[in-house]
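Ticket #4471: structure output looks truncated?

Reporter: J.K.
Steps to reproduce: submitted the chain below (225 residues) through the standard prediction queue, then opened the result file.
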Amino acid sequence: MTEESHPLDIVIVEKTGQLKLLSIKDYKESELFKKCGFKQSEGFKKQHQWTTKIDGTYYIVSVFAKTDGRANSENKYDFPPPIDTKLFFGNCAIVAIKQYVKENNDSWSSYINLTIELWTKIYEKLFGGFEDLAATALEDENEIDELKNVPKEKKTKSGYLKDGFVVDSSDTEEEEYEGSSEEDDEDVESTEEEDVKEGDENELEDIGSELSNDEYEYSSEDEKK
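Returned output as attached by the reporter:
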């Protein structure tokens, strides 16, 4: 059985990671390796295919590539999962098939011309979609401020609600300051008590020394008598 040929547009993923549209006059899957610049078909095969739905239409997209090659010829393109961690060499080819489904669930498929724009949509879908930063910023601007009508005394200086988890920094500083002042007072009082005790002991020592001198003088006079 001979392979049918037909014109087809495919996407070539160059080893640098750049995408290029290639129009093939007589497309044959068995000769696809030539369109990627390989001299031999050995190792060049379908690596994966995805089925996805874009704008109500089902597409089957296949990637043809080699997993063996020379050093420094690795393909730098980031393919979607599950081949996002797989290493390919040289150029790769992406081919698309459109799937048609009838109301009675009968279906058939046929090759379609794949454009870079269509592949980009499929690529984003396979990655789970990319966030639109402009749309996100617009949503943030239109978001209702729930704290707008909350009384000022119930909010911190930064504008947050005082709910037990968020505390005004000024309140925290005052509490820390008051706590430290009480500790300082206790230190002062304890220091004064120590000074008093030391003073009393010094006075007792002075009195004791005077008494000892008096006793000594008294005893010497008695001996003379």
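Triage note (M.O.): checked the attachment and the full token line is present. The first helix runs from residue 32 to 35.
Status: closed, working as intended.
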